[in-house]
Amino acid sequence: MTKTKQTWRLAKLPLAVSLASTLAAPAFGVTFNIGEIEGQFDSSLSVGASWSVRGADPDLIGSNNGGDGLSQTTDDSRQNFKRGETFSKIFKGIHDLELKYGDTGVFVRGKYWYDFELKDESRIFKDISDSNRKEGAQASGAQILDAFVYHNYDIAGQPGSVRLGKQVVSWGESTFIRNSINEINPVDVSAFRRPGAEIKEGLIPVNMFYVSQSLTENLSAEAFYQLEWDQTVVDNCGTFFAQPDIIADGCTDNLRVLSNNPLAGAGVNNALRNLNLLSGGLLQNRPDLVIDQNSEGVLVRRTGDRDARDSGQFGTALRYFSPELDTEFGAYFMNYHSRTPAFSAAGPAANVYSTAKAALTGTNAQLQPLVVAGNSNYFLEYPEDIQLYGLSFSTTLPTGTAMSGELSYRPNAPVLLNTTDILFAGVNPLGGLFGNASLIDGQPGQEVNGYKRKEITQFQTTFTHFLDRVMGASRLTLVGEIGIVHVGGLESSDQVRYGRDPIYGPGPLPATGTINTCSALNGSTLGTASKENQTKYCEDDGFVTNTAWGYRARAIWDYPDVFAGVNLKPSVSWSHDVDGYGPNGLFTEGAKAVSLGLDAEYQNTYTASLAYTDFFGGKYNTSIDRDFVALSFGMNF
């Protein structure tokens, strides 16, 4: 098959993609011709398994489920998989087909997978279901990923390329740190969790029109217009990495709140009957008042998600290479809709509050939130029309070190509010004991949107250096990235709070009622939590800060032909969130992770990979008990 220059294949990718490519064995594929049509078919098959290697932290299991945590929304995975248990046993394949006629072609990529552990095995706490889940989050399935046509051309001697269809476009210079310029495509998080995952499996192609055009020898322009919106695929509830349990599509009955109250421990009918006895019958014959409670708490129902619209997503980029500076510069603008959701909620109508207050008085007043929670609802929404402005550079220092970086600015980025404040906003209208249960002033029937728009500025820079013949290796690759983010216009945390997992409960509250302090609220609504945890997190910490920063590093050693033609690539990766709490989980102060890996390759066809990852550090780090080992074997042809 004759190879010709394909502009779309040469589009600059983030270094993270390039690094991943160095660890994967190249696949030569099968080339063929059908008349004047040139074709290539590439395939990758793999099997793999992953194991949990640390027991669950009791502080991250809700008190209603036997732990010491202050919420039940992030613990299904911890109860489903114990230390030493397998949480994935998977077979998967991915295939690429390209057909080319002259300068015009079509590219199609598809994948399929079957996870025997998640699909066929039962779980000790909650079985894992594929019902109504996003296709990528299911335990088994098949998907068409890329599917686009392209045409390469020249205008006045300057090359250009156009593509139409489902595709991935990567901009910017981000390597490891997210929330970067590279926001055009959503991510399939579930795919990246699977042992033996490749970059191309986890980037979700989206239908769009894309054009890249050289304007001069050193100046080029790019533009895209998306024809549809798609969301990031998060982990299915109950799977090993899932947190929280209430976000994935189809996970509609997992938001259970408040105390495991013995008055309502036997389901809807008993809950209403017991409350009715206490209220002297005032709740009788009220079909509009619904309470669904089990051992985990009262169910807050999930209503329909509010997806973003398909139209209105576009962007443009300019790239200039300066021969004098030996540096490429980039400038970017895009308007896009969030690929990740905001958690929002709505309290019940005013009559629910009045009935609850009239029916439950005296010592029984503490049961009023049961009625409110059981008649509230939550929904996920995806903020639209986020604007992004970006600048980037890429150069080589005199030492031979590659240096790149980017600056991004979003004047109207959504920053997620504290989920606990959102939920307890529905309790505030009860007044009295619960009059200040949240910093958010909820009103009967009012929706509380789970985000506010803020200015977010982020800078990150990457250094890459190659050392030959070091430690017996033919080459040592060192990569490091540092990033810092600033949120403009952030209110004082005694007015509005952003971020922090609900497992840690509310922060400080105005002490204007008998149970309106943080510890008293925890004691009244989750009395089974440990006394230490009822007060431990009642502090102004763990919420989004004005500024946060961290860094990532990776080292990869190349040992070719170690034995019998087998090439080995040991690696070590390090992550450290140094200071502050970034918006939407970007940085968590003190959180660290280290990963040790070994990749093997034989004859550019057969591969094996073994990796161990340890998460630790950070008082508000919900990943500290998610340590795991992954092993995979693959074949590329």
Automatic annotation (TrEMBL):
Keyword vocabulary terms for this entry: Signal
Highest taxon of source: Bacteria
Signal peptide: 1-29
A UniProt-annotated Pfam family: DUF1302
Name used for this protein in its record: Type V secretory pathway, adhesin AidA
